[in-house]
Amino acid sequence: MSAVEPARVALEARSLVSRRGRSGESFELQVDSLRLHAGEVLVVLGPNGAGKSTLLRALAGLDDSVDRRAVHSGAGPVTLVFQRPAAFAGSVVHNAAASLLGRGVSAQERAVRARRALDRFGIAHLSDHDARTLSGGELRRLALARAFVLEPAVLLLDEPFDDLDAEGQRSLSLDLDRAIEETGVAVAMVTHDLRRALLMADRIAVLTRGRLAQEGPRDDVLMHPGSPEIARTVGMSNLAEGRVRRQEGRTRWVEIGEGLEVPTEVALEVGQSVWIGIRPEHLKIDVGRGEGLAIGEARVESLLSDGLATVVALRAKGHSFTTHLLAGRGLARRLERGDVVPLAVAPRQVHARPLAVAPRQAHTRPAKTGSVNP
What span, in angstroms and rounded, lies between the C-alpha atoms of 307 and 312? Predict the structure, then answer.
């Protein structure tokens, strides 16, 4: 969101605690503070079991273990769209309008709002069809239409793109983005699709083991994750530990292996033990374009393409790295497994933070698909 003034807070959670299970198999979610802003999308990321869906249920008021005073929404209705949407007997338009039953809305107004919502998500032509015959993608669109019929102030989405093919994800995300912009609804979205998440997110929240580990503007979290675990969650897959060996002006050089140093502009002390992180799109194969400072050579271990990006797995001095190339062009067409290539990176694009414990090499396996270039 690009508004000059801060967006209105549509929902706020403070000292939120959710508990489930029994001793030995219990799970506890704790969130000290979290705000959802009108017209913004907060994407909630984290590994399986981190508490993402639990958080949505708590924000929706569906968790009896949560103190009701922990969540405040004075802006209007809060609506949760579940990961597995369902339809009941009757037409599509009847399914959409049903969410208004018992809310003092006239039959005529229910019909108008239902058809407007169906049109917003491209399924108005299916209004008279039996809702139980819809495809998976159409059912997801119906679930979103049913939520927007309520004209919510807060929309909570649990895996809204689950089981959709690439085109289905693309078209639904465009329609959803347009609906958010038109209505100004505040959105919290849980998804495992990092690429789709980063395309839509204004802010990112990362959950780890039931705790809100980091939350902030999208680019801040992408470029400045607070820990290696958070870094991996947001796609910063090039991670290593080392020691600051020297300083040249604003640039500190971190030795992560014998003969392998990485530059950063983060203010660090010479001799300090740190971990560093580089997003794949910021690690460059040096072809003399002045895209950064040389850090040494690496051997190509594999090349995988999804048609848009070629993910190149590299090995240098015992370290695994990943970089992205535009598929089908330039280096992506010429590189072969076993090639030795020079690497470069801009110091401003190398994230670094002090280690709390003694240095230990952190390796990551290269992903089979690339993360989005923000």
Answer: 13
